[in-house]
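Hey, can you fold this one?
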Amino acid sequence: MDNIRIFLWMGFLTLVWLGFNQWVEDYGPPPPPNGVEAEQTPTSIIRNGDEQLPNVVDTTALPQIDTAPTSTVSLDNPIRVRTDVLDVIIDPAGGDIVQADLLEYPVTKDAPDDLVRLLNFAPGTRWVFNTGVRHSESENGPTHIVEFSSRSSNYELANGRDELVVSLDWADGNGLTAHKNYTFKRGQYEIDLDIQVQNETNAPWGAVAYSQMVREHIPRDRSFMDVDTYSYIGPVLYDGDRSDKPEVEDLEIMPIVGKYTNGWFASIQHHFLAAVVPTAGEAFNYQASASAGTYVLTAIGDIEEIPPQTARNFSSRFFIGPKLQDQLRSTAEGLELTVDYGFLTALAQPLFWLLRKAFSFLGNWGLAIISVTFLIKLAFYKLTATSGRSMAKMRKIAPRMQALKERHGDDRQALSQSMMELYKKEKVNPAAGCLPILIQMPFFFAFYWVLIESVEMRQAPFMLWINDLSVRDPFFILPLLMGAAMFLQTKLNPSPPDPVQAKIMQFMPLVFCGMFAFFPAGLVLYWLTNTVLSIAQQWRINKIVAAEA
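Sure. Predicted structure:
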């Protein structure tokens, strides 16, 4: 029984160490910055020398795209669109979004003008959308390889307006015309796309709508704790029921083909994503493949005939931005699953809900963490109080336990039997003191996932020197306070009868202090608050038990 607590602590330390290794892996030396100043306007776009259309005649055939940039298309007048949250560039050649900067999300807090860029046309980091409508038996149509025109090269969401519509036009000169209409909304990272195809010819036209995403994959080294659901960077497909995160290397060997209704596909990274949501309620042929380090995600609709002298609308929806769960949920069913809290999602989601409610009242994420920690402690007060009383009784009978040890000397069997009799007589359960640790462990890791994965915590300030709860304390003050609080907590609890275990328990606060020094400040704040509350509770219980003598 006396060994249970030390084993629990060692197991807890092991889990923390594994998490620490993953954190170092994800927050180690950053890759070359992908943020650029929003004021920069490109003068050219590197395009593929051999862009191809998705093969819609045989839907089992995957689109093959040559990713080697072999030509440069000069853009004298790129189409730039700016809202209150997005700064995007549309390539007239294809009429697709090829660059997107997030105006409210700098790469680092110290450089507010260096913005997070999701879509990017630059070689080496190419990540673009391809959308269009092609003929079922030819390459004719308003596809992503034809030239569109626009009335303006610069659009901006005006003050007092909630929507901005950007229109692009195309005509083949033989009676077929198309209009691409993008709708941007104030405060939203959701973008609606409507492609209207007008058939002014005398024959029906077989139309196939498609949406495609192309992204060059930059492999990164993973630690031995390879958790796909944590800080995953790569493609995601949703089949209307569940999401899948295939490895790019696997897609090169085994492409994915399927027909889904209410599906979507996306490319995600830490805190951000770009997603394509085809028309809800309609079945699309989904394809995912990879070649030479570039993966291609495609959704191809069924053939729809457009009679002569009529028009047909093809709609889809994009999401380009941070993983804000409310906006993701309103954009498409299941899109909020891209915020993945791992195997503790069932616990992390309610914790995040509580945090957000607390933030709505307090206006500070640090205070929200403190308040939710208090609520957790209050919810388990009775349970922890029971174990606390056991700990207090163990502390009270410690002198008698020491006397038993001196009496029996090296006779461990007799010592163990005498201690069990003492426990039974005093109604003490030594294992009960482990319950607080068991209770705190899942909440600790759930908080870890919430603080790391929730974009709301990104660069969120607390007070004084803590200006970002998602990174470590710059002066290590919180870890030092936490270590001191844990040391005080050990003084309130009974020491293990074994001298070696007692020394290990005394050493624990120093180990935790060193490890937590590199953890997010918000997580350390949670653990510090929890420890302080535990100290207050145990101190009060010790006083009550002592008074009962």
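The first helix runs from residue 2 to 26. Let me know if you want another pass with a different chain boundary.
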